[in-house]
Design brief:
It catalyses: L-glutaminyl-[peptide chain release factor] + S-adenosyl-L-methionine = N(5)-methyl-L-glutaminyl-[peptide chain release factor] + S-adenosyl-L-homocysteine + H(+). By secondary structure, the chain is of the alpha/beta class. It has 2 domains: about 45 residues, no CATH class; about 190 residues, Vaccinia Virus protein VP39 (Rossmann fold, 3-Layer(aba) Sandwich). It has a 7-stranded mixed beta sheet with strand order 5-4-3-6-7-9-8, sandwiched between helices. The protein has a two-stranded antiparallel ribbon with strand order 1-2. Helix 5 packs parallel to helix 6.
Protein backbone atom coordinates (compact mmCIF):
# COMPACT_ATOMS: atom_id res chain seq x y z
CA UNK A 1 0.00 0.00 0.00
CA UNK A 2 2.91 2.37 0.78
CA UNK A 3 4.34 1.85 -2.71
CA UNK A 4 1.01 2.71 -4.34
CA UNK A 5 0.64 5.85 -2.23
CA UNK A 6 4.22 6.80 -3.12
CA UNK A 7 3.44 6.43 -6.82
CA UNK A 8 0.32 8.57 -6.56
CA UNK A 9 2.08 11.30 -4.58
CA UNK A 10 5.11 11.53 -6.84
CA UNK A 11 3.35 11.04 -10.18
CA UNK A 12 0.74 13.71 -9.51
CA UNK A 13 2.63 15.97 -7.09
CA UNK A 14 0.28 15.34 -4.17
CA UNK A 15 0.96 15.73 -0.48
CA UNK A 16 -0.13 12.93 1.86
CA UNK A 17 -3.04 15.12 2.97
CA UNK A 18 -4.09 15.90 -0.59
CA UNK A 19 -3.94 12.21 -1.45
CA UNK A 20 -6.22 11.38 1.48
CA UNK A 21 -8.71 14.04 0.42
CA UNK A 22 -8.76 12.80 -3.18
CA UNK A 23 -8.96 9.08 -2.41
CA UNK A 24 -12.66 8.87 -3.32
CA UNK A 25 -12.35 11.15 -6.36
CA UNK A 26 -12.45 9.86 -9.93
CA UNK A 27 -9.05 10.06 -11.60
CA UNK A 28 -8.89 11.84 -14.98
CA UNK A 29 -8.38 9.41 -17.86
CA UNK A 30 -4.85 10.57 -18.69
CA UNK A 31 -3.75 10.19 -15.06
CA UNK A 32 -5.46 6.79 -14.87
CA UNK A 33 -3.48 5.55 -17.85
CA UNK A 34 -0.25 6.87 -16.34
CA UNK A 35 -1.06 5.26 -13.00
CA UNK A 36 -1.94 1.92 -14.60
CA UNK A 37 1.37 1.90 -16.46
CA UNK A 38 3.23 2.62 -13.22
CA UNK A 39 1.40 -0.14 -11.34
CA UNK A 40 2.27 -2.57 -14.12
CA UNK A 41 5.96 -1.78 -13.68
CA UNK A 42 5.59 -2.10 -9.91
CA UNK A 43 4.00 -5.54 -10.29
CA UNK A 44 6.90 -6.51 -12.55
CA UNK A 45 9.33 -5.79 -9.72
CA UNK A 46 10.58 -2.32 -10.61
CA UNK A 47 11.16 -0.24 -7.44
CA UNK A 48 8.67 2.63 -7.20
CA UNK A 49 11.49 5.17 -6.91
CA UNK A 50 12.82 4.19 -10.34
CA UNK A 51 9.32 4.26 -11.81
CA UNK A 52 8.79 7.91 -10.84
CA UNK A 53 12.48 8.86 -10.92
CA UNK A 54 12.40 10.29 -7.40
CA UNK A 55 13.28 9.23 -3.87
CA UNK A 56 12.86 10.80 -0.45
CA UNK A 57 15.92 11.11 1.79
CA UNK A 58 16.39 13.13 4.98
CA UNK A 59 13.51 15.46 4.13
CA UNK A 60 14.83 16.02 0.61
CA UNK A 61 13.52 14.89 -2.76
CA UNK A 62 16.19 13.43 -5.01
CA UNK A 63 16.22 12.31 -8.62
CA UNK A 64 17.19 8.65 -8.95
CA UNK A 65 17.95 6.60 -12.06
CA UNK A 66 19.10 2.99 -12.46
CA UNK A 67 22.66 4.40 -12.48
CA UNK A 68 22.45 5.11 -8.73
CA UNK A 69 21.27 3.27 -5.65
CA UNK A 70 17.95 4.22 -4.13
CA UNK A 71 18.88 5.96 -0.84
CA UNK A 72 17.75 3.98 2.20
CA UNK A 73 16.28 5.11 5.48
CA UNK A 74 19.13 3.27 7.24
CA UNK A 75 21.61 5.65 5.62
CA UNK A 76 19.74 8.54 7.23
CA UNK A 77 21.08 7.18 10.53
CA UNK A 78 24.62 7.62 9.19
CA UNK A 79 23.81 11.26 8.38
CA UNK A 80 22.30 11.64 11.87
CA UNK A 81 25.52 10.34 13.42
CA UNK A 82 27.71 12.78 11.49
CA UNK A 83 25.49 15.79 12.22
CA UNK A 84 25.04 14.94 15.91
CA UNK A 85 28.79 14.91 16.53
CA UNK A 86 29.94 17.77 14.34
CA UNK A 87 28.65 21.34 14.37
CA UNK A 88 31.79 23.44 13.87
CA UNK A 89 31.70 25.74 10.84
CA UNK A 90 34.18 25.45 8.01
CA UNK A 91 34.86 21.72 8.19
CA UNK A 92 36.13 20.00 5.06
CA UNK A 93 34.02 16.96 4.21
CA UNK A 94 34.43 14.19 1.62
CA UNK A 95 31.65 11.77 0.62
CA UNK A 96 33.15 8.73 -1.13
CA UNK A 97 30.82 6.88 -3.51
CA UNK A 98 28.18 9.59 -3.46
CA UNK A 99 25.77 7.94 -5.91
CA UNK A 100 22.68 10.18 -6.05
CA UNK A 101 24.48 12.66 -3.80
CA UNK A 102 22.14 11.84 -0.91
CA UNK A 103 24.65 11.97 1.95
CA UNK A 104 26.65 14.93 0.67
CA UNK A 105 23.53 16.99 -0.08
CA UNK A 106 21.92 16.23 3.28
CA UNK A 107 25.09 17.20 5.14
CA UNK A 108 25.49 20.43 3.17
CA UNK A 109 21.81 21.28 3.62
CA UNK A 110 22.11 21.10 7.40
CA UNK A 111 25.68 22.43 7.68
CA UNK A 112 25.77 25.14 5.04
CA UNK A 113 29.19 26.38 6.18
CA UNK A 114 30.88 23.06 5.53
CA UNK A 115 33.06 22.64 2.44
CA UNK A 116 31.69 19.42 0.94
CA UNK A 117 33.30 17.33 -1.81
CA UNK A 118 31.55 14.28 -3.26
CA UNK A 119 33.19 11.61 -5.39
CA UNK A 120 32.12 8.56 -7.35
CA UNK A 121 33.70 6.12 -9.78
CA UNK A 122 30.65 6.39 -12.04
CA UNK A 123 30.40 9.39 -14.38
CA UNK A 124 26.66 8.79 -14.76
CA UNK A 125 26.21 8.84 -10.98
CA UNK A 126 28.12 12.12 -10.75
CA UNK A 127 25.75 13.67 -13.29
CA UNK A 128 22.71 12.57 -11.26
CA UNK A 129 24.30 13.91 -8.07
CA UNK A 130 25.12 17.25 -9.70
CA UNK A 131 21.48 17.64 -10.78
CA UNK A 132 20.31 16.84 -7.26
CA UNK A 133 22.71 19.33 -5.70
CA UNK A 134 21.44 22.03 -8.03
CA UNK A 135 17.79 21.16 -7.39
CA UNK A 136 18.35 21.27 -3.63
CA UNK A 137 20.42 24.49 -3.77
CA UNK A 138 23.57 22.97 -2.28
CA UNK A 139 27.05 23.98 -3.45
CA UNK A 140 29.12 20.79 -3.62
CA UNK A 141 32.41 20.01 -5.38
CA UNK A 142 32.12 16.80 -7.42
CA UNK A 143 35.08 14.64 -8.42
CA UNK A 144 35.16 11.55 -10.63
CA UNK A 145 37.38 9.23 -8.62
CA UNK A 146 37.89 5.64 -7.53
CA UNK A 147 38.09 6.25 -3.77
CA UNK A 148 41.13 8.56 -3.28
CA UNK A 149 42.72 8.15 -6.72
CA UNK A 150 41.80 11.66 -7.93
CA UNK A 151 41.38 13.27 -4.50
CA UNK A 152 43.90 15.76 -3.16
CA UNK A 153 44.26 17.28 0.28
CA UNK A 154 42.93 16.40 3.70
CA UNK A 155 39.48 16.35 5.25
CA UNK A 156 38.04 16.75 8.73
CA UNK A 157 35.21 14.32 7.98
CA UNK A 158 35.11 11.52 5.44
CA UNK A 159 31.86 9.62 5.00
CA UNK A 160 31.03 6.70 2.77
CA UNK A 161 28.32 4.18 1.99
CA UNK A 162 30.47 2.03 -0.30
CA UNK A 163 29.64 -1.16 -2.19
CA UNK A 164 29.90 -3.87 0.46
CA UNK A 165 27.80 -6.85 -0.62
CA UNK A 166 29.46 -10.13 -1.52
CA UNK A 167 27.97 -11.94 -4.50
CA UNK A 168 27.16 -14.96 -2.33
CA UNK A 169 24.91 -12.77 -0.17
CA UNK A 170 22.24 -12.44 -2.85
CA UNK A 171 20.11 -14.95 -0.95
CA UNK A 172 19.53 -12.25 1.66
CA UNK A 173 18.59 -9.56 -0.89
CA UNK A 174 15.27 -8.52 -2.39
CA UNK A 175 14.88 -9.64 -5.98
CA UNK A 176 13.94 -6.08 -6.99
CA UNK A 177 17.34 -4.86 -5.78
CA UNK A 178 19.25 -7.59 -7.61
CA UNK A 179 17.36 -6.99 -10.85
CA UNK A 180 17.25 -3.19 -10.88
CA UNK A 181 19.96 -1.47 -8.85
CA UNK A 182 23.50 -0.98 -10.23
CA UNK A 183 25.98 -3.79 -9.52
CA UNK A 184 28.81 -1.25 -9.35
CA UNK A 185 27.21 0.36 -6.29
CA UNK A 186 26.15 -2.90 -4.63
CA UNK A 187 28.91 -5.50 -4.86
CA UNK A 188 32.55 -5.61 -3.86
CA UNK A 189 35.22 -8.27 -4.18
CA UNK A 190 36.99 -9.91 -1.24
CA UNK A 191 33.74 -10.94 0.48
CA UNK A 192 32.44 -7.38 0.19
CA UNK A 193 35.51 -5.83 1.85
CA UNK A 194 37.51 -4.62 -1.16
CA UNK A 195 36.46 -0.96 -1.03
CA UNK A 196 37.04 -0.75 2.73
CA UNK A 197 40.59 -2.00 2.14
CA UNK A 198 41.11 0.59 -0.61
CA UNK A 199 39.85 3.38 1.66
CA UNK A 200 42.08 2.16 4.51
CA UNK A 201 45.21 2.10 2.32
CA UNK A 202 45.30 5.88 1.87
CA UNK A 203 43.12 7.10 4.72
CA UNK A 204 45.98 8.44 6.81
CA UNK A 205 47.02 10.73 3.95
CA UNK A 206 43.57 12.29 3.58
CA UNK A 207 42.12 12.38 7.10
CA UNK A 208 43.22 15.46 9.01
CA UNK A 209 44.51 15.33 12.56
CA UNK A 210 41.54 14.60 14.86
CA UNK A 211 39.52 13.81 11.75
CA UNK A 212 36.74 11.21 11.63
CA UNK A 213 35.70 8.62 9.06
CA UNK A 214 32.06 7.43 9.09
CA UNK A 215 31.01 4.42 7.01
CA UNK A 216 28.03 2.19 6.46
CA UNK A 217 28.80 -1.53 6.69
CA UNK A 218 27.10 -4.83 5.92
CA UNK A 219 25.17 -6.79 8.52
CA UNK A 220 28.08 -9.21 9.15
CA UNK A 221 31.01 -6.85 8.67
CA UNK A 222 31.56 -5.11 11.99
CA UNK A 223 34.51 -7.28 13.02
CA UNK A 224 36.36 -7.54 9.67
CA UNK A 225 35.94 -3.85 8.81
CA UNK A 226 37.12 -2.84 12.29
CA UNK A 227 40.19 -5.04 11.86
CA UNK A 228 41.00 -3.50 8.46
CA UNK A 229 41.17 0.02 9.92
CA UNK A 230 42.93 -0.98 13.13
CA UNK A 231 45.61 -2.56 10.95
CA UNK A 232 45.84 0.46 8.64
CA UNK A 233 46.06 3.04 11.45
CA UNK A 234 47.05 1.22 14.68
CA UNK A 235 46.60 4.36 16.79
CA UNK A 236 43.09 5.03 15.52
CA UNK A 237 39.95 4.49 17.57
CA UNK A 238 37.35 2.35 15.81
CA UNK A 239 33.76 2.71 17.04
CA UNK A 240 30.93 0.49 15.73
CA UNK A 241 27.30 1.59 15.87
CA UNK A 242 24.17 -0.47 15.33
CA UNK A 243 21.03 0.85 13.67
CA UNK A 244 17.67 1.28 15.40
CA UNK A 245 16.82 -2.34 14.60
CA UNK A 246 19.99 -3.52 16.35
CA UNK A 247 21.81 -4.57 13.17
CA UNK A 248 25.51 -3.99 12.48
CA UNK A 249 25.33 -0.87 10.31
CA UNK A 250 28.04 1.76 10.86
CA UNK A 251 31.69 2.24 11.79
CA UNK A 252 33.51 5.39 12.86
CA UNK A 253 37.29 5.70 12.70
CA UNK A 254 38.90 8.51 14.72
CA UNK A 255 42.44 9.37 13.74
Amino acid sequence: MYDVDFLLEKLFNLSATELLIKYQSRMPDDQWQQFQSAVGKLMAGVPPQYIVGKADFYGLTLTVTPDVLIPRVETEELVDWVLSENSKNGLKVLDIGTGSGAIAIALKKFRSQWNVTASDISEKAIEVAKDNALANKTAINFVLSDVFDSITGGFDIIVSNPPYIAKDEQAYMDRSVINNEPDLALYAEDEGLAVYRKIAEDLKDHLNTSGKLYMEIGFRQESPVSSIFKWAIPTAQVIPKHDVAGHQRMIQVKK
